[in-house]
Specification:
Helix 5 crosses helix 9 and helix 6 runs parallel beside helix 7. Strand 16 and strand 17 form a beta hairpin. The radius of gyration is 24 Å and the shape is elongated. A 7-stranded mixed barrel has the order 1-6-5-9-8-7-11. The chain starts with a strand and ends in a 6-residue tail after the last helix. It has 2 domains: 144 residues, PK beta-barrel domain-like (M1 Pyruvate Kinase, Domain 3), CATH 2.40.33.20; 157 residues, Molybdenum Cofactor Biosythetic Enzyme, Chain A (3-Layer(aba) Sandwich). The protein has 9 helices and 17 strands.
């Protein structure tokens, strides 16, 4: 269990100015009380590690005062810029969720840049929103809890569930998902299950994943027009919002050369806090669908959790 120590808490009345250390800050649902950056947005609280400040001090050749880079909370014990969105810092009184790593530097239009000559916040500062508010002061400790995304892959196949042939599409989805999360440096845990073409079994799993707030559920198989191809109907019944453009684009893109691709009835959408995709059962189709799904997956996760990150 990793902990960080709060070295200073800082406030400024105007944006783009150096923050001044105070005895304590009060965290509310809108951020730091009486701070210029408080509000109903995703960058409510700014944080900067002593590790980054010391690195900049060597480059600048002078001592940097806490708050000089406009951070609300100055910490020690972790390279904050190595965290990820949705990681959390908490103790028994407060809880913060990381929403953004770094930001755009405004150069000469920023008082900090003019006074200091550079700024480390755009590269190594992080931003967070308040999930649980209370007071925070110098000397307090926060526990660091990395976000681990959960992905459930469901293969629907009577024959594969009986062991009559090896499921290849489910494991291939797992490989692609793992590679994708590795590429964006997000932690992920993936579970594969193989079930018969059974409406009730699929429905039961979807109920559990929705209640557990699993981040992503991907089904493979049962998207055709056979007597036991019912996956889209079952999945659609659980969706709060459908995202039709993804599957429409995939069908059109690959169907232009191979019309059979137009016959898949896969759907995509949101079930509570869970993204759900239903894919065909072949490895070839999995490769095609996942290539396109991954292009919007991170952005959809941000949107689903209310982060307007561009």
């Amino acid at each position: 269990m990793k902990k960080i120590k709060v070295l200073s808490v800082n406030i400024s009345e105007k944006k783009g100015t150096i923050k001044k250390p105070v005895d304590q800050i009060h965290l509310t649902k809108n951020g730091v009380e009486d701070d210029a950056h408080a509000g109903s947005w995703h960058r409510q609280v700014s944080m900067l590690g002593k590790e980054s400040i010391e690195k900049f001090e060597e480059q600048a050749g002078r001592k940097i005062t806490f708050g000089e880079f406009a951070e609300n909370i100055t910490t020690e014990g972790l390279k904050l810029y190595e965290t990820n969105p949705f990681d959390r810092f908490y103790n028994d009184k407060v809880e913060l969720e990381v929403t953004q790593i770094g930001k755009k530097c405004h150069g000469d239009s920023c008082a900090i840049f003019r006074e200091v000559g550079n700024c480390v916040m755009p590269k190594e500062g992080i931003f967070a929103r308040v999930l649980k508010g209370s007071s925070l002061k110098k000397g307090d400790e926060l526990i660091y809890k990395p976000k681990v995304f959960e992905v459930k892959i469901i293969t629907l196949s009577d024959r594969a569930s009986k062991g009559e042939y090896e499921d290849r599409s489910g494991p291939r989805i797992r490989e692609i998902i793992q590679e994708y999360f590795d590429s964006i440096h997000w932690r992920v845990e993936i579970e594969n299950v193989v079930i018969p073409d059974d409406r009730d079994r699929l429905s039961s799993i979807l109920v559990n994943e929705k209640e557990s707030c699993t981040d992503v559920v991907i089904t493979t198989g049962g998207t055709g027009i056979g007597a036991r191809d019912f996956t889209p109907e079952v999945v659609s019944g659980f969706l709060d919002k459908e995202i039709p453009g993804i599957m429409e684009m995939i069908r059109l893109k690959y169907g232009m050369e191979k019309p059979n691709a137009l016959l898949s009835r896969g759907v995509a959408g949101v079930m509570g806090k869970t993204l759900v995709y239903s894919l065909p059962g072949s490895v070839k189709a999995v490769n095609e669908y996942m290539t396109e799904i991954n292009k919007t997956l991170q952005h959809l996760i941000f949107m689903l959790h209310g982060l307007d990150v561009h």
